[in-house]
């Protein structure tokens, strides 16, 4: 893995980094540094048949999403989602989201680049995810769950929004066990750069005026 030196960063620096294929992380939740990374291998979640083994959502999860156990929203509580992702829990002793990362991404949200999907249960935020959208590329950053399947359901709703909006790239950065069920695949840096260039020169739409429920219902009907 290549690691750059520390930047004098701003929201604009973060956007430029993404456009070059880099992404930022802090060493820990209480670190004062943010470093930029460019891995040799990049994990992508397929949005169609052009990536890895193609788009896949487990049948059990499709049934769960269709049951609508939670309320789903888009960009309703970005600060709440990034706060949830930054929480230290019994299973997650530390995170890479420090105070500066929070501040930067909340600024990016206000600028229209960073977006969140929220999962609610009886009005309480129980899960969600956030990331950055540039043209037809979406860079997934982090997700959290306080109730069964909450983060997985959020990811399905994100995939629905991206597929319906003609996005070409869903970057997951690294493979983990949580993402394997979605056919996440690794590609070399040069292939990722080619895919990124194509996405950054294409148009896409997050369909922000359309409810997550409507988009996801249409999406699941298409892939079933």
Describe the structure.
This protein is of the alpha+beta class and 224 residues long. The chain has one domain (2-223): Aminopeptidase (3-Layer(aba) Sandwich), CATH 3.40.630. It is built from eight helices and ten strands. It has helices spanning 11-19, 59-66, 78-86, 99-110, 150-164, 177-180, 189-200, 212-223; strands spanning 2-3, 23-26, 34-38, 41-44, 71-74, 114-121, 124-134, 137-145, 169-173, 185-188. The protein has a seven-stranded mixed sheet, with helices on both faces. Strands 1-3-2 form a three-stranded antiparallel sheet, covered by helices on one side. β8, α5 and β9 form a beta-alpha-beta unit. It is globular.
Percent range of helical residues: 25-40%
Largest sheet: 7 strands, mixed
Just name the CATH architecture: 3-Layer(aba) Sandwich
How many structural domains can be distinguished in the coordinates?
Answer: 1
Topology at a glance:
Elements: E1 2-3, H1 11-19, E2 23-26, E3 34-38, E4 41-44, H2 59-66, E5 71-74, H3 78-86, H4 99-110, E6 114-121, E7 124-134, E8 137-145, H5 150-164, E9 169-173, H6 177-180, E10 185-188, H7 189-200, H8 212-223
Parallel strand pairs: 8-9
Antiparallel strand pairs: 1-3, 2-3, 4-9, 4-10, 5-6, 6-7, 7-8
């Amino acid at each position: 893995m290549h690691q750059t030196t520390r930047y004098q960063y701003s929201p604009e620096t973060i956007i430029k980094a993404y456009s070059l294929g880099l992404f930022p992380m802090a060493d820990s939740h209480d670190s004062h540094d943010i470093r930029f990374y460019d891995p040799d291998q990049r994990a992508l979640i397929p949005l169609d048949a052009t990536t890895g083994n193609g788009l896949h959502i487990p049948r059990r999860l499709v049934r769960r999403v269709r049951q609508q156990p939670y309320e789903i929203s888009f960009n309703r509580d970005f600060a709440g989602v990034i706060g949830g992702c930054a929480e230290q829990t019994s299973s997650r002793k530390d995170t890479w989201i420090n105070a500066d990362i929070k501040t930067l991404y909340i600024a990016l949200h206000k600028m229209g680049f960073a977006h969140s999907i929220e999962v609610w249960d009886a009005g309480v935020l129980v899960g969600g995810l956030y990331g950055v959208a540039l043209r037809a590329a979406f860079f997934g950053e982090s997700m959290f769950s306080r109730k069964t399947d909450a983060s997985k359901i959020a990811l399905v709703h994100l995939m629905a929004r991206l597929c319906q909006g003609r996005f070409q790239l869903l970057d997951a950065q690294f493979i983990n066990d949580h993402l394997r069920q979605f056919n996440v695949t690794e590609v070399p840096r040069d292939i990722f750069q080619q895919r990124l260039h194509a996405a950054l020169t294409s148009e896409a739409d997050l369909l922000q005026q359309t409810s997550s429920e409507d988009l996801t219902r249409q999406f699941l009907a298409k892939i079933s």
